[in-house]
Structure formats: structure tokens, C-alpha cells
Amino acid sequence: MDHFNSIIGQSPALESLIRSAKMVSATDVTILLKGETGTGKEVLAKAIQKESNRANKPFITINCGALPESLVESELFGHRKGAFTGATGNKLGIFQAADGGTLFLDEINSLPLTIQAKLLRFLETGECLAVGDTKPYFVDVRIIAATNNDLLQQIERGDFRRDLYFRLNVVPLDIPPLSQRTDDIEKLIRHFLNHFSETHGITAPKFSKQALKTLKSYSWPGNIRELRNLCERLSILLAGRTIEPENLPHEFKPSTPTLSEPSNTDFTLPATGIKLEALELDLIHQALSRTNGNRSKSARLLGISRDTLLYRIQKHGLATH
Length: 321
Known about the structure:
Blueprint: H1 12-25, E1 31-34, H2 41-50, E2 59-63, H3 72-77, H4 94-97, E3 102-106, H5 113-125, E4 127-128, E5 137-138, E6 142-147, H6 151-157, H7 162-168, E7 171-174, H8 185-200, E8 206-207, H9 209-216, H10 223-237, E9 242-243, H11 276-290, H12 295-302, H13 306-316
Parallel strand pairs: 1-6, 1-7, 2-3, 3-6, 8-9
Antiparallel strand pairs: 4-5
Helix pairs in contact: 1-2, 5-7, 8-10, 11-12, 12-13
């Protein structure tokens, strides 16, 4: 069974990601998943684990951002009786519970600096130390970490250890946002509608061509999670019906200024006019410079898809590295 089939879509960006994930799943290498909130990092981590030689061993997910800072060390590494107020007995940590298996550390960017040092120690030696103990223990745990933040920016601010970043970033996998996977939206919708039809015992609605066009032009800040939630809401409220653009929530209905109304931008067309080609080229230069040549981020700054940006780069004969 190919567990990567749980990842819905056939866009080139997604297929490239899955090819890379399949190659590393058979190894024990540390992986860092990078992507916006809601892009499916945990789904990918589970697929990697299921295709690994640790498939029948524990797979434990920890959201680092949800752990109370005062308890995160005890939760991860365990503690000895009397180590702190309320430690009435010995407690095994999550690393011990995951021994032999895989630990998925989501939102690794939220891990406190003090715990980052202990995680680095584990990655280098396999050694863990429970709170209040003097003797370390050793476990065999594969780490898959995920972040929705730019860790290099956090490093510059002093919020994340550079040495830990390099230990985690052995194999980075960048998950594309849904806005760069518009060809996958219709397939994802069918999957979610069928799922909720079975889950709730209702007749799945259908989306009209115009409604689908509206969804494909939307920016999807919440990514696949936002699309899933929308499909569940409409499956329940409009079961068996055809969904038109007017049935979609207000955020999917962009206002269109009339010719007599000024557009909602900071740019005013000069009376002398502009050279549109030159302006476009200049904006592409600025975006690439601001993102250090990252084309995906540059595309988001310009409000276009990555494929559109690549086309315009080639059109202008712009060389990037």
C-alpha cells in the first residue's frame, strides 16, 4: 500500500515533493518540513512514517507551540520524583514513549531555547536527561520536525539556535501553499465532499463551474485546512444542492471597483503614463531581491502563482540564481 496516496493532488509542485519524501522515507535521516499553516505537514509526516522501517513502531505528534513552557522539558524528557513542586513520582518522557519509532515535532519554531539545547544533544548523541536526574538515558527515535515560520529569521533575532537548525535541516521538504496548487483544488473538493457525505450520511453538494472558478482565484490563507472546513460547512448547509458563487462566504467575493471609483491600491497612474513592461520587470527584481531569490516567496509578494512568475522571468530574459 502506498501511504502517499493519502496526499491528494497531482500538481507538479506536489508530485516533486512526494518523490523526495518517498526517497527519504526509507532512511532514518532527520527531516524538516517547511510550509504555511494548514498545508498538510502532519499528513506528510504520517505518510513518511508509514513508508519507513519504523511503520509498526510508535508515531507520536507533539505541537511544541501548545506545550506550557514550564512543563515542556518534563513532557519531552521525563522527570524524577521530587525534581520540582508537584513531581510526586517518576515520569517517563515522550522520547521514551517514542523509542524505536518516530517523533513529529510540529511548530518546532516555538520550542524554548533551553529545550533546543537538549534536543540538539539528543540529535548528536541519542542522549536524553530527565529533569532532576544526573544519569542520561538513550533512545532510538527518528525526528521529523515542522515549522510554519522562517527559522533563518528567528536565528537572526536570537530565537532559534543555528546549530540546531543545521541538525534538523538535513533533508528540508518545502510544502507548497494551496495558492500554488490551484489545479489540485477540484480534486481536493471531490475528496472532501465524498468524505463528509459518508461521515454525515448526507447527499454531497456540487459546485458550479463559476463557483469552482471563484475558489481557484482565492488566495487560501488557511490552505487545505481552510478548504476542508469550507467543504464540511457547505456539505451540511447545502446538502444535495448546486453551490453557486453567491452561496460562498463573503471572503470569497472580492469587491470590484467601478471605473468611477478609485481602486484600493497605493499606486496612482501618473498623468504622463508609465512603461508597463519596465514597471513589471522592476517589481520582479524587487521581489526577488527582498526574498533572496526565493521564487515561491517572490510570487506571493507579487500576488501571482509561482508558474506565472517563472513565465514572466523567462519572458524578460531575467537570470536568477
